[in-house]
Amino acid sequence: MLEKAAIILDCFSPSGGPFRLSELSVRAGLAKPTVHRLAADLVRLGWLERSGPHYRLGAKLFELGSLVPHRLDLREAALPFLQDLFEATRETVHLGIRDGMDVIYLERIHGHEALALPSRIGGSLPLTCTGVGKALLAFSGAELMEDVLSRPLPSLTPHSVTDPGRLRMALEKIQVSGLAYEEQEAAPGVSCIAAPVFAGGTAVAALSVAVPRERFSPAQLAPAVRTAALGLSRVLRGGA
Fold it and tell me: Which key words are in the record (predicted)?
């Protein structure tokens, strides 16, 4: 259903809108009852707005869009790299951006093995509990890092890092290596490796691969994650 919701949102780019429910159904290639149900959910989330019979992009989406240049263009630019990363690993891959102290997931491609992950397209999780979030936090400036470390750290699982000193050390390591790791901190039994994506001096997004903990092999996954992030960064900087 999350993928279908993303399809509905994509109907508004580049052609805009507003659209009636029947128009959205045709554009999305989905049954009208399905579009009606998903559109109602998107309205509640603030991703869409409804005015009479018409739907248009909601204020929340434009707020997220202000975090990086051309949010929908970012997702479109990232898709080839996400697909390459998936083909290289056959595991679940993510694309996320920062929204305050949370990471917002713009895209997710499911691996061949179903994982019980809390991530969903359009959903948010704390920066400090995810690989994508840590990669973003490490390269979003010292002011944000100190703000996050000065507050009580959220916990999604017993493995979530709640000690500021331990998190600070992890973020410093990420700044050196360019890779972020997450060990069962967002979901039990799942590990993750992530890398930041740059369009300037700070990270505008991050890519990650999530795998079952028993076969987590950073040495094998790191080159693919790093290559995908560097390739997307190059595109966003206009170097491709």
Answer: DNA-binding, Transcription, Transcription regulation
Q: What is the pLDDT of residue 163?
A: 96
Residue-wise pLDDT for 158-170, tens only, equals 999 999 999 999 9
187 secondary structure, DSSP code: S
Residue 37 to residue 44: CA distance in whole angstroms: 11
Q: Are 134 and 171 in contact (CB under 8 A)?
A: yes
Question: Tens of pLDDT along 87-111?
Answer: 888 899 999 999 889 999 988 888 7
Q: Name residue, tokens 């128009």.
A: 23
Instruction: Enter the DSSP assignment of 214.
Output: G
Q: pTM of the prediction?
A: 0.69
Q: Residue 91 corresponds to which tokens in the numbers above?
A: 């595991």
The CA-to-CA distance between both ends of the chain, in Å, stands at 34
Pairing type for strands 92-99 and 54-57 reads: unpaired
Say how far apart CA 106 and CA 198 lie, in whole Å. Answer: 16
What phi and psi values does residue 140 have, to the nearest 5 degrees?
A: -110, 15
**CB of 48 closer than 8 Å to CB of 60:** no
Q: Which residues are CB-neighbours of 35 under 8 A, at least 6 positions away?
A: 8, 21, 24, 25, 28
State the DSSP string of 120-163: -TT-EEEGGGSHHHHHHHHTS-HHHHHHHHTSPPP-SSTTS---
C-beta separation of 45 from 6 below 8 A: no
